[in-house]
Design brief:
328 residues, alpha/beta, Rossmann fold, Helicase, Ruva Protein, domain 3, 2 domains, five-stranded parallel β-sheet, 5 strands, 49% helix, 9% strand
Length: 328
């Protein structure tokens, strides 16, 4: 996967470390984090990241599309949730991935017309299954959504999907890495300037960049097939039946003109307005979690000075007096 280096490092600490270094968690008396929520614009590699992290740590991977769990029969949606979590526990160590989480984890209370509140019951079942996930069972839950603003707040509390990771649009280095990853098996002409292609495609998602590469490959394949057909027709006209093994390949690699033609069809799937919404949500989340950013333990000398003098004793009582005034 190209780019997203910070996200990869954070995921490595969350998923790989508990599986590969469990003795460190025992030493410090910590239970590993149970889940993480990926949010960001569509096409930025949320699903791909979840699959990659499961491969890296040699864990089993169970992928669940959110709408798959919902059925028309009463009580069967909750049974589907229980079955999924049971399979994950039996396959531990396991990564359980919920794609399109917003379809089954919307904020409760607003689902009056969904067949007796089926969506609310599914959320309740997911919450109880997450709480019942024993610490000994090495199951890690990953959720992915394009709409983090409508996710039920209870599912994001500490102990559930407590780590929220923003998957942004790729920057210059990430776009370059994505283009190289998409073309790693393709023969590309040496005069194709990938740096220029990465600079021109600012604001493109990983899926948009992959589409450009695939279209360039299709154009090269089309040209190669057409030239081979024309060559075969020419050979038949000349009365030659056998094909010479030393004939040159008509299109040996993907050329600049293929990329130039592919760029004519390139488009951005994520608008600037959408990006601002995600960045505002990430900023609001950062501010709400920055409550203790200025917290510092006092130096060890300060408590001894406060207890020794009378003025220090009075200073120690002032906060409680202020509290009394507040509640008077």
């Amino acid at each position: 996967i190209g780019g997203l280096e910070n996200v990869k490092r954070e995921l490595q600490e969350l998923v790989q470390y508990p599986v590969e270094h469990p003795e460190k968690f025992l030493k410090f008396g910590m239970t590993p984090s149970r889940g993480v929520l990926f949010y960001g614009p569509p096409g930025c590699g949320k699903t791909l990241l979840a699959k990659a992290i499961a491969n890296e740590c040699q864990a089993n991977f169970i992928s669940v599309k959110g709408p798959e769990l919902l059925t028309m029969w009463f009580g069967e949606s909750e049974a589907n949730v229980r079955d999924v979590f049971d399979k994950a526990r039996q396959a531990a160590p396991c990564v359980l991935f919920f794609d399109e989480l917003d379809s089954i984890a919307k904020a409760r209370g607003g689902s009056a017309g969904d067949g007796g509140g089926a969506a609310d019951r599914v959320i309740n079942q997911i919450l109880t299954e997450m709480d019942g996930m024993g610490a000994k069972k090495n199951v890690f839950i990953i959720g992915a959504t394009n709409r983090p603003d409508i996710i039920d707040s209870a599912i994001l509390r500490p102990g559930r999907l407590d780590q929220l990771i923003y998957i942004p649009l790729p920057d210059d280095k990430s776009r370059m890495a994505i283009l190289k990853a998409a073309l790693r098996k393709s023969p590309v002409a040496k005069d194709v300037d990938m740096n220029l292609l990465a600079n021109v495609t600012k604001g493109f998602s990983g899926a948009d960049l992959t589409e450009i590469c695939q279209r360039a490959c299709k154009l090269a394949i089309r040209e190669s097939i057409e030239k081979e057909i024309n060559r075969e027709k020419e050979r038949q006209r000349n009365g030659q039946t056998a094909m010479d093994s030393d004939e040159l390949d008509p299109v040996p690699e993907i050329r600049r003109d293929h990329f130039e033609e592919a760029m004519k069809f390139a488009r951005r799937s994520v608008s600037d307005n959408d990006i601002r919404k995600y960045e505002m949500f990430a900023q609001t989340l950062q501010q709400s979690r920055g409550f203790g950013s200025q917290f510092r333990f006092p130096d060890q000398q300060q408590p001894s000075q406060g207890t020794g003098g009378g003025s220090g004793g009075q200073g120690g009582h002032r906060p409680s007096n202020d509290d009394d005034d507040l509640y008077a």
